[in-house]
Amino acid sequence: MLDNPLVVREVLVFQSFGRLREIAKILHGALEILRYHAAVSSLLLRTRLPVRGLVEANVLIIPMLPHPPLPARFATTETKAAFVNQLFDAGAKHYDSVVDWGFLRSGAGYRRWALQRHGLRPGHQLLDVACGTGLVATAAEKILGSAETITCLDPSEGMLAVAKSKLAARFVVGRAEQLPFPDNHFDFLTMGYALRHVTTLDEAFQQYYRVLKPGGKLLILEATKPSGRVGAFLFKTYFGKIYPFLTQVFTRSRDAREMMAYFWETMDACVRPASVLEALTAAGFTEVNRQSLLGLFSEYTAVKA
């Protein structure tokens, strides 16, 4: 049958069509890759950066996210801020009690100890970013002697309402990425367990650098998932399962439970400490350092030159 020239020609034509289909598949895959890179390019920020104080250059940089978007919570980084605000507004009244027993009532003493060790002193102008219900600010007040030099900033009005009942500080509604303060204004800037909730590390750290005075100190407290398998398993078991479950049992609030469940999701997805240190250095900070406690808690410090 294959001796027939007509049959041979038809077979060759069929094989040619098969090859064309394969080529079409390859081209389609290449097109999908180009579409992916176009989507990534849409996330790039065009920023004017000083180059060693000599010239200014337009540089394309990829923003460093504290963690990837969580599809079950928000689809894009643009919708993250609204979701987080709603989450904390709803759970604000339960936050203090949940954090208190969840960390075995050790939080207040630890926060004050950390602030003292890292140099907070009476007379300092302090900015507490993402102050929440004021847990870091109230610890700072004990060191400073009053709340007169404390400014508390948070995007959640529900959390700020709780904080206002505790201390007579200055309260401002705002976000870390857009601080409504002048340059070189604060001696000390704190952020307690909220780094995972900013939109991008780059924008937040650039703002921190801008509002600190030369020689000003930055202190970020954060919970960090252990790198070891056993530690990571125990961390996940407690923060991912036990903590949210007990939160609902004790508060009878689904909002509070969702807030603690989200805590775990962001801790699990958060960038590793090396990336945080890299972003601090890129923002211009010096003496960038991380101190780890028990393999669970991170104290990031940096100084504005």
Describe this structure in words.
Residues 6-14 and 23-57 have low confidence and may be disordered. The relative contact order is 0.12. The termini are far apart. This protein is 49% helix and 20% strand. The protein has 2 domains: 5-42; 65-303, Rossmann fold (3-Layer(aba) Sandwich), CATH 3.40.50.150. It has 9 helices and 9 strands. The longest helix is centred in the first third of the chain and has 37 residues, at 5-41. The chain is α/β, with parallel strands linked by helices and 305 residues long. A 7-stranded mixed β-sheet has the order 5-4-3-6-7-9-8, with helices on both faces. Strands 1-2 form a two-stranded antiparallel sheet.
